[in-house]
Amino acid sequence: xxxxxxxxxxxxxxxxxxxxxxxxxxxxxxxxxxxxxxxxxxxxxxxxxxxxxxxxxxxxxxxxxxxxxxxxxxxxxxxxxxxxxxxxxxxxxxxxxxxxxxxxxxxxxxxxxxxxxxxxxxxxxxxxxxxxxxxxxxxxxxxxxxxxxxxxxxxxxxxxxxxxxxxxxxxxxxxxxxxxxxxxxxxxxxxxxxxxxxxxxxxxxxxxxxxxxxxxxxxxxxxxxxxxxxxxxxxxxxxxxxxxxx
Length: 246
Fold this sequence. Notes:
Blueprint: E1 6-12, E2 26-27, E3 30-31, H1 32-43, E4 47-52, H2 55-63, E5 68-70, H3 78-89, E6 97-101, H4 110-115, E7 127-133, H5 137-141, E8 147-154, E9 157-164, E10 176-185, H6 186-194, H7 199-204, H8 208-213, E11 218-223, H9 233-244
Parallel strand pairs: 1-4, 1-6, 4-5, 7-11
Antiparallel strand pairs: 2-3, 6-10, 7-10, 8-9, 8-10, 9-11
């Protein structure tokens, strides 16, 4: 996969209820969104841009040498936001792989970002994502931890059957913590954003179920660790401690 074919887009908005102004919060001297930008650039898989509806975020990104794309404020999801950004950044359709990287993963490792591309080596796969094995009961039972349920199709690879906030699958055996990082084929992203929200998506409040309910194929790469998302003041403090150490 050449760099010219891959575009990494980071959706970012200010309207987080639990941590207002989250993308611009300072972590070790830089706004959080800039840390994510740097991680994406370090992955070295293609062009990187932040898709936002907030001028202050765009200014911060550009002040640190990044690229920002202004998008509408009324998008229901990050996928819709990156699709608008894709049309502005790449109107000629040169990029055929689009990576959707959440803007609240300031400690994600560049290797994880690179890892999400591997399942797309199989032309039958529409969307690729990541998961890591769960090792604690608290993680297994926490509804804020999304579980990826899939059928093993090779070393470190699952074909996704379902995603849920419930503790699943039942019984002995591994469970997997889904990581909200996606790589779409361009045609798959175009199809996905054109679909209406699906029944299970609305019930579980998990956007990726829309793709599964529409018969799209999602494969999951298994990685060793889950990057820490920043959703609460405690998460922010943890990220600050991690990144203060360099």
